[in-house]
From TrEMBL:
Name of the protein this chain belongs to: Cerebellin 7
Chief location category: secreted
Signal peptide span: 1-24
Record-annotated C1q domain positions: 91-230
UniProt keyword Signal, yes or no: yes
Keywords: Secreted, Signal
Originating organism: Cyprinus carpio carpio
Origin: domain of life: Eukaryota
One GO location term (cellular component): extracellular region
Stored InterPro entries: C1q_dom, Cerebellin_Synaptic_Org, Tumour_necrosis_fac-like_dom
PANTHER family the record matches: CEREBELLIN 13-RELATED (PTHR22923:SF102), CEREBELLIN-RELATED (PTHR22923)
Taxon lineage: Eukaryota, Metazoa, Chordata, Craniata, Vertebrata
Length: 230
């Protein structure tokens, strides 16, 4: 809108200038303004107004081109600033990641029903979205998230860890017991990428009648992070 107003003001200004020159010619006064810059043939013909208007066309074209370039430059700068604000906002608000283990627990289980695991030893909790009191991760924003879990146990006992999203089972880490071999320890892991809405909850249960083991070596982990917000 501001460019249209500028064009209108320029047109009015030059129109007034041309009208003044025409009136001065009628009264026999010497023309003022830009006569000295007009071509000789225009002055000789006494047709300054026509020549002046004709001479304005390249000036107006140049001015229009300059204004368009200025507008494009301003639009790019505005877009760059908005992009910087958005990127900065994501850096400040969407740094979401956590990693935790059961800690030095030894054997955990068995229980007669599914048992929610609370990973007490926290290595990272950026964004504070993992609850160390309940073992539940709550999504702070809608986005794509990546989760992984691992478990460690004796081969003489079954191990079953299941990751849930809002009560719906997603993936499992399961290890069958071995009865025909010597007792040893084994580790298993699994991972998944999920699309979460703001407020969705992700957590891990130890399934009924199974065991899991952890010690100071941090063998049983639960981790997750925001890949990108939506």
């Amino acid at each position: 809108m501001s460019y249209n107003i500028l064009y209108l003001l320029l047109f009015v200004l030059f129109s007034c200038n041309c009208s003044s020159m025409s009136e001065a010619q009628k009264e026999g006064e010497p023309p003022t303004g830009r006569s000295e810059s007009l071509p000789v043939e225009c002055v000789a013909a006494g047709n300054q107004q026509s020549c002046l208007i004709t001479g304005l066309y390249p000036l107006l074209a140049e001015l229009s081109s300059s204004l368009q370039s200025l507008k494009a430059s301003m639009d790019q700068e505005q877009f760059r600033r908005k992009g910087t604000v958005r990127a900065g906002s994501h850096r400040m608000e969407h740094n979401i990641a956590f990693a935790a283990t059961l800690g030095n627990k030894g054997d955990v289980g068995p229980f007669s029903t599914n048992f929610p695991l609370v990973y007490k030893k926290v290595f990272l909790n950026a964004g504070s979205c993992y609850n160390t009191g309940t073992g539940i991760f709550t999504a702070p924003v809608k986005g794509v998230y990546f989760f992984s879990l691992s478990g460690h146990n004796k081969t003489s006992k079954p191990m079953a860890l299941r990751l849930f999203k809002n009560g719906e089972p997603m993936i499992i880490v399961y290890n069958h017991p071995l009865t025909d071999a010597g007792i040893r320890y084994e580790s298993l892991s699994n991972s998944i990428t999920l699309m979460l809405e703001k407020g969705d909850q992700v957590y891990v249960h130890l399934l009924a009648n199974t065991w899991v083991f952890d010690n100071t070596d941090n063998l049983t982990l639960f981790t997750g992070h925001l890949v990108f917000p939506l």
